TrEMBL record:
Keyword Ion transport: no
Cofactor(s) in the UniProt record: pyridoxal 5'-phosphate
Organism whose genome encodes this protein: Sporolactobacillus kofuensis
Descriptive protein name: Aminotransferase
Top-level lineage group: Bacteria
UniProt keywords, alphabetically: Aminotransferase, Pyridoxal phosphate, Transferase
Similarity comment: Belongs to the class-I pyridoxal-phosphate-dependent aminotransferase family.
Amino acid sequence: MTHALVSKMKKELSLIQPSDILKFDQEASGIPGIIKLTIGEPDFNTPEHVKEAGKRSIDHNRSHYAPPNGTPELRQAISHFLEKKYGLFYNADHEILVTAGATEAIYTVLTSILNPGDKVLIPTPIFPLYIPDTLLAKAEPVFMDTSKNGFVLSPELLEQTLAEHGDAVKAVIFNFPCNPTGVTYRRDQIEALANVLKKHDIFVICDDIYSELTYGDRHVSMAEYLPDQAIVINGASKSHAMTGWRIGFICAPAVIATELGKIHQFTITSTATVAQDAALEAFENGMDDGIRMRAEYEKRRDFVYEAMRKIGFGCVKPEGAFYLFAKIPDHMIQNSMAFSRDLARKARVAVIPGGSFGPGGEGYIRISYAASMEQLHEAMHRIAEYAAKIEEAQGSVQ
């Protein structure tokens, strides 16, 4: 490869940087005795009946290519799952694509719908993957900072941003329950936002991957109110502790799904047949597998929330997922990366810097409580000791 080609490649990808989350997690992993509250991965095992289905698939030599959009049986099970759980109606034959996790779903959707110069509205703080995928399509992310409104996008801010950017807006992204804040939207909030969006000819991307980990009221998808505009992303990773199986899916009206299928097909051909057979079991016979995990996460949420508030961190109480977004106390290091490095080095607890999640995230840290209660108790003890030492040092200076 010539130097000119390498230089051209670097220039074109210069806006794309490695994931801050994975980079910091790897950095912290080298500290002996570290407790990692970093990665958003369930600490539960895949349900036994789902694993058995995967084993049967192997034994039956289901090792050949699946149809690009997924096996008919799995797409039918997903259709039934969405109808029963959330009142969403998608035709299994023409409106559902099985993807390699929600990650590939996000890539497929954004690279399919975006053209150079398009704009994508993104409420922040938010899971950062949407940003590089938007940039890869030579489109522009437009951030809407929700930190002053309890991390909830208001209809007023949405309307204002749409008016400011006009016809250049191609899509808006919603991810709730939200990574990193744990905040979700309730029916009245969703209806108010939908009333704004239905006046605009734009795509509404609904990343519902944490839908089964919603505390209290049932998850409501934006797609319920905007079925003709919505593109739904979901999967088995969080609901069934199947992160490594890499099963996600996209749902959209047939005219949209047909076009999404082109990029999906040429990106991965199809997901692993064995994994699809396991997911079939998950969605068909394990529809409520997430309930037990959700109950345990809620206990952990309550413990970590109270512990962090007692230590002095400001927190919005999470309503879903398994994250707590905590405001660093004013008397501590305010740069979230510097604070997280200091905490990891001195207290041997790893969290993710809030600045990794876009505007409104700086000055915060994200704690993943997808860890055992034993680990969480020890982590909170270490953070409390860390905070006490800072106060003691500041008191001696005064």
